[in-house]
Amino acid sequence: MNKTYLKLSLDLDFILIAITASLKDYVLCHKINTQLGFDFERIEEHEVYFNVDQAPLSFSKYYFYVEQGENEYFIVSNRHSDGFLIPEMNKVDYFLIIHQFLDKDDLNYILSGLNKLPDIQVAAQIDPYKLKSKENLIM
Q1: Is 47 helix (H, G, I), strand (E, B) or coil?
Q2: How confident is the model over 24-71, as pLDDT tens digits?
Q3: How many CB atoms lie within 10 A of CB 70?
Q4: Where are the alpha helices (DSSP H) in the chain?
Q5: Can you tell me the distance from the alpha carbon of 76 to that of 85, in angstroms, rounded to the nearest whole number?
């Protein structure tokens, strides 16, 4: 009898920026909105199931959409009282996820703008394919 195998591949076609900042999520979004001219708004929380037997962990999530270029921006908290969204990145407080194409100049503008904020210790681009828990970032 022949066996058929199903191979799943995750669509990780987004830009991921890790942000370390000891700020509340709404304060961080306000500062980013002011610095970069964005308009992040809070939306429903990002829920992730770590164990089938347990309730999901909820992480705060903010959203901003740019019609020109159809770019979607998400800011997701990495911290919850019971764990992390991406456990191997436990020093990171937030992730900025950018869907759709973004050229290098725009990406550099965002990274430099984030790093100019005095309350942000570091903002750096990360390759999502190198993360063990990358499936937790699927929106």
Answers
A1: strand
A2: 999 999 999 999 999 999 999 999 988 888 888 999 999 999 888 788
A3: 10
A4: 25-36, 104-116
A5: 9
